[in-house]
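Q: Here's a chain of 444 amino acids. Please give me its 3D structure as tokens.
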Amino acid sequence: MTIYALSSGPGLSGLAVIRISGDKCKKILNQMAKISNPTPRIATLTKFYKQESNEVIDEGIIIWFPSPKSYTGEDVLEFHVHGSRAVINCILETLSKINGCRIAEPGEFTKIALENSKINLLKAESIGDLIAAETEIQRRQAIDIMSGNHGKKYANWREKLIKILSNIEAKIDFPEEDLPINILDDIKKCSSNVKNEIIKTLDDQRVGERIREGFKIAILGPANAGKSSLLNYLSRREVAIVSEVAGTTRDVIETHLNIDGYPVIMSDTAGIRDAKDEIEKKGIKLALKKAEDADLNIVVIEPKNGYFTGVLRGLVNSDKTILVVNKSELGTDEIENELKRFNPIYISIKNETNLNNLIFNIRNKLKNKFLSTEDTIITRERHRQHLMRCVEHLENFENKNDTGDFDKAAEDLRLATRQLGMIVGKVDVEEILGSIFNDFCIGK
């Protein structure tokens, strides 16, 4: 089956790129561009025709990528045409009438590339992350994964475990042969080193996931303290409704921000007070859940409300909280002594006073969280779960000291190796067999 899709963004544009992949590419070229033998990877100016009437659709460029030297590993064809909706729709409609062609599913070109071993699973994920990147740090992380730096680490661990497994498999296949003491010592040392390296990697404060998904910041505080106004100020747009009526915000309102190049998911929450109805109670419950899950809490109060409920007092005492006193134009003398030990930031959203200081503190919190980005290789929860299971299997392997447990020990290693292979999308028993033959010269 040959698939096709608009690969550039939708909407009015100077140019649009339509990508086609599959064995019908040459047929499409012949029917729609009247070209039989295109030069590979060379831009060629041509006219595009409707199949049934030979009416000219547009004039543009074709680029031909013959298999296997293409993105998907199949024959790939690109149409570079004018980006009007009429041109794009006409070309897609013409393609749909060619037998054996259909519109591509989301991500299908990359899926085919993965199936044809043009890329591994990590690179496939990073392509999606790069397309979705909104900040500089997200772009850098996606490019780093695409360059193969992350995959090399996983591959290195996997190769070491396969090496150990080949020794164990050799002992199982040839029980009469005793493994040298130095090999047994190397097995224990190597497995322990791999396990400890993975444990160290897991202790990364989830920086990779934070970069990819966004640093979570929750704005909390009493009703009518200015939480929604702060969200709108930081967003530079009207995200939340602002009213003098206390309790306007009932649900959690979220927006994605770019603060100094760092991705942030900012949440405005319901005012924390003694709720008057069931809906408000649910809103407050959601607010407290957001505070629990957040990487940073901003607690906003005002001078006339300069006290904390038990919940807010507990939040302010946390090292992941910034205390903000809004409406400082009303005077802060009466509450300063009470708040001094919390190092509050006094602002006035109404007068736009000292907000730069608040943003500076938020930036510092973000930078401190992202200090270790260069050493981070886990970018998804999927990666983390596989690594945790790998550690479990290695611990099970290390606990088997009896020589009679070789079969069970080999299974633990297979499972550990498989978990690493699943991260990059590679699980191959033949690698183990190859290692046995190369290293032990069995059958000599």
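Q: Can you summarize the key feature?
A: The CA atoms of residues 192 and 302 lie 55 Å apart.
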